Amino acid sequence: MTPHRIVTAPDLAPPVGFAHAVVAAPGHMVHLGGQTAQDHTGAIVGTTMPEQFDQAAANVTAALRAAGARPEHLVSLTIYVTDVPAYRAALTELGPLWRKHFGRHYPAVALIGVQALFDTTALIELVGSAVV
Questions:
Q1: Residue 11: per-residue pLDDT
Q2: Any domain includes 9
Q3: N or C of the chain: less Cβ packing under 10 Å?
Q4: Lowest-confidence range among 15-19, 29-33, 112-116?
């Protein structure tokens, strides 16, 4: 059972890879801290946007599992990147990685370009909220 309802908005362009709005069902909120491409030692792995997205998304799903949630419980995800054009150029590679970790579940998503992240070698950080 999906813990939310995706709202369609006829006055907006069709969403591709995200939802314009999500209405969360009653439940427990899970707020995830920012997840970068850190491995279990704390080192950033990967040098490309897809490599780092893969690890960051794996970290999101691990954090969700630790909180008793699953990827389909995500209601929002904010993606911070240090290079928006590089993210856009990698979309063909990022799509399969999204499906690997989140399936065909698309929460409300925002992509935000930032000058830098806390770890200077991080290219991407994922911050999400879920309802269980």
A1: 74
A2: no
A3: N
A4: 15-19
The CATH number of the domain where 84 resides is what?
3.30.1330.40
6, part of any domain: no
- Provide the angle, in degrees to the nearest 10, between the axes of the packed helices 49-66 and 91-102: 20
Q: Give the β-pairing of 74-81 and 108-113.
A: parallel
pLDDT at 13: 80
Domain count along the chain: 1
Full residue range of the structural domain in which residue 113 is found: 18-131
What the block records as the tokens of 51 is: 């490599």
**19-32: pLDDT as tens digits:** 777 777 778 899 99
The 3-state DSSP class for residue 3 equals coil
d(CA 123, CA 102): 20
Partners of residue 111 on adjacent β-strands = 79
Give the number of other CB atoms < 10 A from CB of residue 9: 11
Tell me which amino acid residue 2 is. T
Phi-psi region of 54 (alpha: psi -120 to 50; beta: other; left: phi over 0): alpha
